[in-house]
């Protein structure tokens, strides 16, 4: 694992345990056909809390966070996001998607729109913002991810790391309360991983509620309040990064950690 | 970070070195020029030979050249004509009827083939197994059989229908027999023309209304629905014009009189078979184009747009269609051109399109060169118009480099 972020200096926790939780997953179950991919997954994430989800391939990490903004639908159990329970009701779906931003492994920028248009699309058409205001907002976020000079270019003209930072800015332009990251650095060359992780650390410092699926242990140690280890659709173990990584209690986590360490 | 790219202004500080021309066969620039001169000379020589040869032959056979014959009486019966025509009219008018008959097949065919092809292409991507398989079979069968065969098949099928007295009569005013398809028609009156004009003006008005609504939304963020204005411009306005002119409404119902069905609108078996064959055949190709266009847009685009809160309709309109159309438009243009040119197979089933009429003209007058020139001119004009329109549309939607 590339320890691109210095583990020593951590980001102070912003979790507010007193406030109502940002996300509640209560005994969530999901099947693809007959395959049981989420088994009684229960998690409660506080406002401002930063959670890293890890686990072997196929363990249901992506499925879990994709259920939170309903790119996937769960079949049993309850998911409550920002006080709104997920259901088939379209209005609740709209409300949740405005509050939850998502960053994908493969960036998924819109290739036919400029960087600026990528960022202003949702503010204009979903938030009903005047164009000039949306553009000012987008430029502000592009500056924060350190690529304002690329605003007029198209995604295909940018490097992978730049594209992923645009994807982060694009999600932030909707002013979400919660950000989901699904392996945001796994499609990147090693030298670009750091610039994306730096951006995410910067975001953590603003107190954003974040759930990141990632195997970047250095990042987990630096920013995570809690690491959740999943295997075969279950939450097997969870806790603060240091104790989880130093003293794994279950055999499954021990095996996983040794594989990860051996692999790098 | 982005610092990797050097500043182009610095790179341009030293001028690009000028290439010097050398008078040597090993110089590619010189070689290029020589070849071009040789090719142009050969083309000019070829044309000169063709022209002088033709003129010589025409003189020997005492054939007058020129388009003077166009103003002679044609004496050529034409079954279907969109404009008034009788055999005592000139060749020019006969050819005009032919052009209109070609356009009638091509335009209706392009519209129908696009609709049918899009439906089949989308159906082939459907999660419904039966629907997907049926569309796949349709595409494979229709595009693998020669078009001429299909036209002859449809024509034979229509010929095999019962005569007018036993015509199939599926609905009031609809008769299908070996004389073609009969439909109820509206008796056209000036009021209808005015209503149509109002509709066209309404289209333009709707376009400008939509533009200004969009500009206003960009300014203050508030979306303004376009449909009330569109309803007013496109429905209320034409209906009001029509009503103000006395709301004339006479339907011409086809009915069996004697041995034939009289009145109403007629689609002749020839036109019907040609249209059917062209539409079904071209739709198979269009279905594949639409399918590959939609598949070219990755699922991740849907997910990213939905995660941003866009509604499915917005995702389709702003993300998926613009990307799919970029892939779809160029091959679609070829299919439109193919359909137009394939309509000349009309000759095989006796539909009198431009080729058929020009061919008869050419036989009757002996003006072969002029006849062929007219056919070529007509197809070139239609094809270039389609190409120009589609290229313009393509530019409009696809002004993006990757
Ligand atoms: N659309 C789908 N249809 C069928 N099965 C699926 C689908 N998406 C995921 N799965 C299955 O669900 C299980 C969980 O997948 P998920 O993508 O959540 O795993 P993951 O933990 O994110 O793995 P990775 O680290 O490889 O991304 C896997 O066994 C996967 O094969
Ligand atoms: Mg995954």
From TrEMBL, chain B:
It is a multi-pass membrane protein. The chain crosses the membrane at residues 29-51, 105-125, 191-209, 230-251, 271-290, 372-393. Keywords: Amino-acid transport, Cell membrane, Membrane, Transmembrane, Transmembrane helix, Transport. It holds the Pfam family BPD_transp_1. SUPFAM superfamilies: MetI-like. It comes from the Bacteria. CDD domains: TM_PBP2 (cd06261). One of its GO terms (cellular component) is ATP-binding cassette (ABC) transporter complex. The keyword Cell cycle does not apply. InterPro entries: AA_ABC_transptr_permease_3TM (IPR010065), ArtM/GltK/GlnP/TcyL/YhdX-like (IPR043429), MetI-like (IPR000515), MetI-like_sf (IPR035906). Residues 99-390 form the ABC transmembrane type-1 domain. Gene3D superfamilies: MetI-like (1.10.3720.10). It is found in: Cell inner membrane; Cell membrane. PROSITE patterns: ABC_TM1 (PS50928). NCBIfam families: HEQRo_perm_3TM (TIGR01726). Belongs to the binding-protein-dependent transport system permease family. HisMQ subfamily. This is Amino acid ABC transporter permease. It comes from Roseomonas acroporae. The lineage of its organism: Bacteria, Pseudomonadati, Pseudomonadota, Alphaproteobacteria, Acetobacterales.
């Amino acid at each position: 694992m590339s320890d691109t972020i210095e583990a020593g200096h951590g980001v102070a926790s912003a979790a507010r345990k007193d406030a109502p939780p940002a996300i509640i997953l209560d005994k969530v179950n999901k099947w693809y056909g007959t395959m049981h991919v989420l088994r009684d997954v229960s998690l409660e994430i506080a406002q401002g809390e930063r959670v890293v989800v890890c686990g072997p391939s196929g363990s249901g990490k992506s499925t879990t966070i994709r259920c939170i903004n309903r790119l996937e639908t769960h079949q049993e159990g309850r998911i409550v996001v920002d006080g709104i329970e997920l259901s088939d009701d379209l209005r609740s779906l709209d409300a949740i998607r405005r509050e939850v931003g998502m960053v994908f492994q493969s960036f998924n920028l819109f290739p036919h729109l400029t960087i600026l248009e990528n960022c202003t699309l949702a503010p204009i058409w979903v938030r009903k913002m005047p164009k000039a205001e949306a553009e000012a907002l987008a430029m502000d976020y592009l500056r924060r991810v350190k690529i304002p000079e690329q605003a007029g270019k198209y995604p295909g003209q940018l490097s992978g790391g730049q594209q992923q930072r645009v994807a982060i800015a694009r999600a932030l332009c909707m002013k979400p309360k919660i950000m989901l990251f699904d392996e945001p650095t796994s499609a990147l060359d090693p030298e670009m991983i750091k610039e994306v992780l730096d951006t995410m650390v910067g975001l953590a410092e603003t107190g954003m509620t974040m759930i990141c699926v990632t195997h970047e242990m250095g990042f987990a140690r630096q920013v995570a309040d809690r690491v959740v280890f999943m295997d075969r659709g279950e939450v097997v173990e969870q806790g603060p990064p240091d104790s989880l990584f130093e003293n794994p209690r279950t055999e499954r986590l021990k095996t996983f950690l040794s594989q990860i360490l051996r692999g790098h | 970070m982005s610092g990797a790219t050097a500043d182009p202004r610095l790179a341009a500080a030293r001028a690009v070195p000028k290439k010097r021309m050398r008078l040597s066969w090993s110089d590619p620039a010189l070689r290029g020029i020589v070849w071009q001169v040789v090719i142009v000379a050969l083309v000019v020589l070829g044309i000169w030979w063709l022209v002088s040869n033709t003129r010589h032959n025409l003189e020997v056979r005492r054939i007058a050249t020129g388009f003077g014959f166009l103003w002679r009486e044609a004496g050529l019966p034409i079954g279907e004509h969109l404009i008034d025509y009788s055999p005592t009219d000139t060749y020019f008018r006969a050819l005009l009827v032919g052009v209109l008959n070609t356009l009638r097949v091509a335009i209706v065919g392009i519209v129908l083939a696009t609709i049918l092809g899009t439906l089949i292409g989308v159906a082939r991507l459907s999660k419904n197994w039966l629907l997907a398989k049926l569309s796949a079979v349709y595409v494979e069968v229709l595009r693998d059989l020669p078009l001429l065969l299909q036209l002859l098949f449809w024509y034979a099928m229509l010929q095999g229908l019962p005569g007018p007295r036993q015509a199939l009569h599926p609905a009031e005013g609809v008769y299908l027999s070996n004389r073609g398809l009969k439909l109820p028609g509206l008796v056209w009156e000036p009021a209808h023309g005015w209503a149509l004009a109002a509709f066209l003006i309404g289209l333009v008005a709707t376009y400008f209304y939509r533009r200004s609504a969009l500009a206003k939304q960009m300014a203050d963020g508030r979306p303004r629905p376009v449909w009330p204005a569109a309803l007013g411009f496109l429905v209320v306005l034409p209906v009001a014009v029509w009503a103000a002119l006395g709301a004339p409404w006479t339907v011409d119902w086809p009915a069996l009189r004697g041995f034939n069905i009289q009145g109403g609108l007629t689609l002749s078996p020839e036109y019907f078979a040609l249209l059917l064959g062209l539409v079904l055949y071209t739709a198979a190709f269009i279905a594949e184009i639409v399918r590959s266009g939609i598949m070219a847009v990755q699922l991740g685009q849907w997910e990213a747009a939905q995660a941003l809160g866009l509604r499915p309709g917005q995702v389709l309109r702003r993300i998926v269609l613009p990307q799919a159309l970029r892939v779809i438009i160029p091959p679609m243009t070829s299919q439109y051109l193919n359909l137009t040119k394939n309509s000349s197979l009309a000759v095989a089933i006796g539909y009198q399109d431009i080729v058929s009429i020009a061919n008869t003209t050419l036989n009757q007058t002996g003006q072969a060169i002029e006849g062929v020139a007219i056919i070529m001119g007509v197809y070139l004009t239609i094809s270039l118009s389609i190409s120009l329109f589609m290229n313009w549309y393509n530019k409009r939607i696809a002004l993006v480099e990757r």
